[in-house]
Amino acid sequence: TSPGEVWVVAAKASTQGLDGVFFSPDSGHTFTELPDVPNLLGYTVSGADLGGQGFYDLTIAVDPLNADHIVVGGVNLWSTADHGAHWNCIGHWFGGDSVPLVHADHHALTFVPGTSDVLSAHDGGVARVTGQGIQDRSNGLDIGQVYRLGFSENRLDRILTGWQDNGVNQLDRGIHAQVLGADGFHCMIHPEHPDTLYA
């Protein structure tokens, strides 16, 4: 609706939290920094923390049907309906009473054509944000990045894997289950006691 507008979200090199949100009305010839923006790249629902992961997850999208509606993804999802004057956390990696749960670390955002719904590609797959909430669209996606692999020398039917941002997962007698959440990194099975797992 406003083809000359350009939006930029930037992270601080020192903390990887928000450096600023910048707006250009003239196709990027001049930019103005928006005042009083919470840390859209941080970990909290309030945006009062200082850190973040701007080096890793940083994305922004403008609603093609409503130029006042902008969504920013970092660790969490944030939205403004008034051209950046006020921001609300619309999806949080831990969830809570006031904010829906959504997987952390958003890397790409796009609006669904003809709607104000947003699709987010994040470390857990894909989510669709609608006016009614957040829908996980990752069912059936057999994807993951494995950091480490642990196996049992005594039980060849048991394997432990550490997945990037998707927990520690165990394959035991053909059944796959997550045994620990968050970042699954190092993992191993005790060489003599296969029921003792380390993660």
How would you describe this structure to a colleague?
The protein is mostly beta strands and 199 residues long. Helix content is 0%, strand content 40%. It has no helices and 17 strands. It has strands spanning 6-11, 18-24, 32-33, 59-62, 70-73, 77-80, 88-91, 106-111, 118-122, 125-130, 133-136, 146-151, 158-163, 168-172, 175-180, 188-189, 197-198. The protein has a four-stranded antiparallel sheet with strand order 4-5-6-7, with no helix packed on it. A four-stranded antiparallel sheet has the order 8-9-10-11, with no helix packed on it. Strand 13 and strand 14 (168-172) form a beta hairpin. The N and C termini lie far apart (50 Å).
